Amino acid sequence: MASSNPPLSRLAEEIARNSKILLDHLDRSGLPQPSFERDGPLRTPFENDDTASAARTALIEATKELHVLALGPEETTRFFCFNEIYLLGAMQVLCHFKVPQNVPDTAEISFSELASRTGLSEALLPRFLRMAAANYYFSEPRPEFVCHTPWSRTLAHDEGMQACVWFRYAEMLPAVAKFVDMVEEFPNSPEPQDTAFRLAFGDSFFGYKEKHPLHMLKFGQFVSAFASGETADSAESIAQAYPWDCLPEGSLIVDVGGGTGHISAAISRAHPHLRFQVQDFADLREESISLAKHRGVSERVSFTAHNFFDPQPPAAQGAAVFFLRNILHDWSDVYCRRILKPIAEAMGPSSRIIVSDIIQPQAGTMLKTRDARIRALDLTMLSMFNAKERSYEDWERLLTSVNSRLRITDVLGRPLMRRDTLIEVQLRQLEDGT
Ligand SMILES: C[S@@+](CC[C@H](N)C(=O)[O-])C[C@H]1O[C@@H](n2cnc3c(N)ncnc32)[C@H](O)[C@@H]1O
C-alpha cells in the first residue's frame, strides 16, 4: 500500500523546514548565507547552536536521500563513482601545479595567464579546471576566465585541505585498488603487514613513510586537517568528558601509546590532582618532555619508553587508569589481545581501562551520511593496517577474550565528543573481594 506521505514529499518538506531553521539562525546571528560567490564564507558556524546544528545534519541527510531517489537505481549505478574518481584526479593535478594559489582571491584570471603562471599545459588546464568547476571548486564567470569559489579558496590557503586531496589520491586510492587482491590473498589474516596498502606500495604504512618523507609530511597534515572541524575530538573535550575528578588525589593515569602526551597534558591541566605516565617509543621522549614543560605540567606528566606488547613496568602496576586513545582500532583482535593482556595483568582491584575509540553503530540505527563515514573509516583501517573499528559487542567480545573478568562499566563522551567515545572497563570483583 502506498504511504500517505511518500518519500519525495516527506523529504521536500524536511528540506524546506530545516532550511528555514538555518536561515533564521543566520539572520539572528548576523551571519552570511553559504554561497558559491567568490567572497562567500569559508565556514558557516552552526555547531554552537544545537537547533541549527541538528537542522544542518537533517538537511544534509535529506538532500542526499532526495538526490539518490531522484537519480533512481540504474542511473546511480551507471554513474557510480564516475564523477568522484575523476574529480579526485583533477584536483590532485590542480593542487600539484598550485593552481588554487595562483588564482587571485578577489579577481578573475584568464586560462592562458594561469597556465603560464603554473606551468600546467594550456591544453590540459581547462579540462581539469572545468571538472573541478562542475563540482563547485572554481567558477568560469566568462569563457576561458576563472575565479575562486569559497571551495577552491580553502585549497589556496590551507595546506591541511591540500593534504586531504593529496593523501586520498596518493595513498588511499592505490591501496583501495588492491582490496580484491588483499581479500583473496589474506582472507583471515590478523597480521598488520597483510594489507592492501602493502600490496600497493610494497611496504607497511609507516615503513613506507619512513623512506618517503613527503608522504610522512602529508600524512601529518592530513591527520590534523581531518581531525579538526566537525569531526574533532579535542584533548580538551576528553578532559571534560570523563569524571576525572572522582579519582582520588595523586591517582596515576597511564597513557598507553600516548604519543607526545598531548591528551595527558590537557587532562592534567584541567585536573591537577592526577599524575600521568605517558608510554610510547623512546624517540618521542624529548618532544613529550618539552610539551609537558611548555604546558606547565612537567611535575605531573612523565614519559616512559615502553613497548605496549611488553609487561607493564613496575611503576605502572595497579595504576588507577590505563588510557588507550586511538590505539586499539589500529590493530586486529589478535594484536589487541597482546596489548590488553599485560594491562589486565597490571590492574589492581580498583584500576580501570579507558578506551577512547569509535563504537560502530548497529546497522540501521544511524543517519546514512554519518554511518557511511564511520564505515569508510573502518575500511580505511582495513586497507592501511588490517585493523578495524568495533561495535559495542565487538568490544565486549574482545575484552572478555583477554580476561573473562573484564567488563564494560560505562560508555561516556556524548555530547562533548563528536566521534569517539570513552569506554570504561573494570575487573569484575571475585567473591573474596579481589
Ligand atoms: C594513532 S597514535 C595515537 C597517539 C595518542 N594516543 C593520541 O590519541 O593522540 C598511535 C601511537 O601508538 C604508538 N605505538 C605504536 N606501536 C607501539 C608500541 N608497540 N608500543 C608503544 N607505542 C606504540 C605510536 O608511536 C603512536 O604514538
Explain the layout of strands and helices:
Elements: H1 7-29, H2 50-71, H3 73-78, H4 82-96, H5 99-102, E1 109-110, H6 111-118, H7 125-133, E2 145-146, H8 150-157, H9 159-176, H10 179-185, H11 196-201, H12 205-211, H13 213-226, H14 235-241, E3 252-256, H15 262-270, E4 275-280, H16 285-294, E5 301-305, E6 321-325, H17 333-346, E7 352-357, E8 359-360, H18 368-385, E9 390-391, H19 392-402, E10 406-412, E11 421-427
Parallel strand pairs: 3-4, 3-6, 4-5, 6-7, 8-9
Antiparallel strand pairs: 1-2, 7-11, 10-11
The structure holds S-adenosylmethionine.
Question: Could you please describe the fold and organization of this structure?
Answer:
- With 434 residues, the chain is an alpha/beta fold.
- The protein has helices at residues 7-29, 50-71, 73-78, 82-96, 99-102, 111-118, 125-133, 150-157, 159-176, 179-185, 196-201, 205-211, 213-226, 235-241, 262-270, 285-294, 333-346, 368-385, 392-402; strands spanning 109-110, 145-146, 252-256, 275-280, 301-305, 321-325, 352-357, 359-360, 390-391, 406-412, 421-427.
- Helix 1 (7-29) packs antiparallel against helix 2 (50-71), helix 4 packs across helix 7 (125-133) and helix 4 (82-96) crosses helix 9.
- The longest helix has 23 residues, at 7-29.
- The N and C termini lie far apart (61 Å).
- The model has no long low-confidence stretch (mean pLDDT 93).
